[in-house]
Amino acid sequence: MPHDTPLISTIVGGIVLAFIFGAFAHRLRMPPLVGYLIAGVLVGPHTPGYVADQSLAPELAEIGVILLMFGVGLHFSLKDLLSVRGIAVPGAIVQIAFATLLGWGLGAFMGWSTGGSLVFGLALSVASTVVLLKALQERRLVETERGRIAVGWLIVEDLAMVLALVLIPAAASIGGEGHAPVEPLSAALSSLFDLDLGIGGMIAMTLVKVALFVALMLVFGRKLIPWTMHRIAHTGSRELFRLGVLAIALGVAFGAAKLFGVSLALGAFFAGMVLAESELSHRAAQESLPLRDAFAVLFFVSVGMLFDPNVLIDKPLPILATIFIIVIGKSVAAFLIVLAFKKPLGTALTISASLGQIGEFSFILAALGVELGLLPEEGRDLILAGAIISIILNPLLFFLCDRMRPLLDGAKREDVVADPAPAADAIAAQEEMLPEDDEVHPTALSGHAILVGYGRVGSIVGQNLKSSATPFLVIEDSDKRIGELKAQGIETLSGNAVMRETLDLANLSGARSIAIAIPNAFEACRIAEQARSVNPSILIVARAHSDAEVDELKQYGADTVIMGEREIALGMVDRLAQVHHESVPYEDGHGPDTIMPTDDPPPGRE
Q1: Does the pLDDT at position 512 exceed 90?
Q2: Dihedral sign (CA 570, 575, 576, 577)
Q3: Are residues 358 and 459 in the same domain?
């Protein structure tokens, strides 16, 4: 008996096609998300063949956004958020205003109403959560200063859009430009007390609700959520722990949206941020990772489903103008704003590239504008086309920024040399041109050891290399760890060892050994493969969490692979043998200089 299963068919169709085209895009050295978008276009209503459920796909994608923002919150403390408020808040506000002005100008030029033009401009001003975080994660920048500024900037944009979603219906109802519902709480208070709150009252109600949610999370959530996870962890059930992580992420996000009018993504972010203060945060991040990645893919598929390829033929010039605002206008504005705050050039380029796209909030604003009768359907089509194309172009924008940085650095230094300023001014200007803290330079070491990763395992290896006076350097991407290493006088390269350029800076060809201490087996295999191809005689030592990973790492060139579980088991067997077979008396060796082993984190996160 046949059954209609739109949910199953949507998930299966979206994930299977995303896998096929994502793998094909990766084969062509393109970002996999390009393949995900193409998969969405193929299962959308504008192409022949199977059509996925257009109402289910966006909701499934929203789960990915929730889990993704929850994961970011797990690695983003309140201290990090407050540390970038000085640039993220004014920077995001100015950038939103500038992009909205450009969008309003394009809408006015096309003959739209003032309200519709402003909605169009707002939709072009806000970057996509998923695209931004994917780009930062691929470059391992989330925990750097640049990453923190970008994420903080994103949070401010989300808060601004939450306010906009309340103001737009109110403005439409007052201005008479459309048919608008009124904000529920404001309507209830107005009818109860016979008061006309107006736009000012609605703004105040929105700010009060957001502030109330933040206060509850910071006062009660910081105690209740970690306490709950600790109680679940003490049960010893991994299944319950995983379910608890998902319940907190999804439950807080949904409750924040329904009770306080806060976006789902923002609610999930605060849930993750308060849980980050618990030592269980790493485990929570690992448990939510598989679902987070799977549903994030469905986000790109759902975006592709909305895209009608015919719009590229029907409206080429308006689409080009829209893309110019998103990719060029926003990026240039963000670049100049960051430089105005006297931040390094690399930070300005990263922020400008990160914001050169639009996504989920843009779709929500476009749908609201059309529903209220403010934005014509032509505007929604332009927003969707601009989103698709800007998402595809975003990796190219990052690539161009990476290539522009050395040229801009060189141009700045030439200007300093040519400037006949007084000596003191020249010295001050020259100091501004010095490489920023995260810029990397080739090492002068030779015959040395290379240590990839300085987490729980890498720190033990590094301290022993240092105590034995072995020349070595560390490749690390965490700003916090890099600062600690530099304070100890340990040479450090900031970057991802998977990138060939980073390994070249570490003088891989002149090194005697490389210890790959990161827990991610996929990246470790790639590093081992490149190390063996560059230096066939180098000693490669890696870590693994299973027999399959051991075999794979050896296949890619590793000489020695240490599996934590096996070494723990051997230590236990040795201790038991000392007791049961009257071996040499056991000594625990808890001396002042002894480094005790620690439990390894699960694969994917230290």
Answers
A1: yes
A2: positive
A3: no
> Is 479 found in the same domain as 372?
no
Structure tokens, 228: 């709950």
Has residue 228 been placed in a domain? yes
pLDDT given at position 429:
38
For the chain, helix (H) and strand (E) counts, in that order, are 27, 6
Q: In what order do the strands lie in the sheet with 492-494?
A: 492-494, 472-476, 449-452, 513-516, 539-544, 560-563
Residues 449 and 512: beta-carbon distance below 8 Å: yes
Please give the tally of structural domains in the chain.
Answer: 2
Query: Contact, 61 vs 71, CB < 8 A?
Result: no
CA 410 to chain centre: 30
Beta bridge partners of 475: 452, 493
Q: In 458-512, at which residue ranges do the beta strands (DSSP E only) sit?
A: 472-476, 492-494
Q: Report pLDDT for 324.
A: 93
Other CB atoms closer than 10 Å to residue 56's CB: what's the count?
17
In order of 54, 138, 443, 558, the CA distances from 526 in angstroms are 38, 14, 22, 11
Residue 72 and residue 18 in one domain: yes
Q: How many Å apart are CA 80 and CA 365, to the nearest integer?
A: 29
Rounded mean pLDDT of the chain?
78
* Shared domain check, 545 and 494: yes
Q: Give me the residue label for tokens 């404001």.
A: 186
In this structure, is residue 189 part of a structural domain?
Answer: no
Shared domain check, 488 and 385: no
pTM of the model as a whole: 0.64
- Whether 174 has a pLDDT exceeding 50, the answer reads yes
Query: 472 and 378 in one domain?
Result: no
Q: Quote the CA–CA distance of 167 and 211 in Å, as a whole number.
A: 17
* Residue bearing tokens 């843009």: 362
Q: Could you tell me which residue, 240 or 499, shows the higher pLDDT? A: 240
**At 162, which CATH number?**
1.20.1530.20
C-alpha to C-alpha distances, 454 to 13, 444, 466, nearest whole angstrom: 41, 21, 13
Domain assignment of residue 512, given as a range: 448-579
- Which of 264, 228, 206, 241 is CA-nearest to residue 67? 264
Nearest Cα neighbor of 354 from 128, 80, 559 is: 128
Find the CATH number of the domain harbouring 462: 3.40.50.720
> What sections of 126-233 are H helices per DSSP?
129-138, 145-175, 184-193, 198-216, 222-233
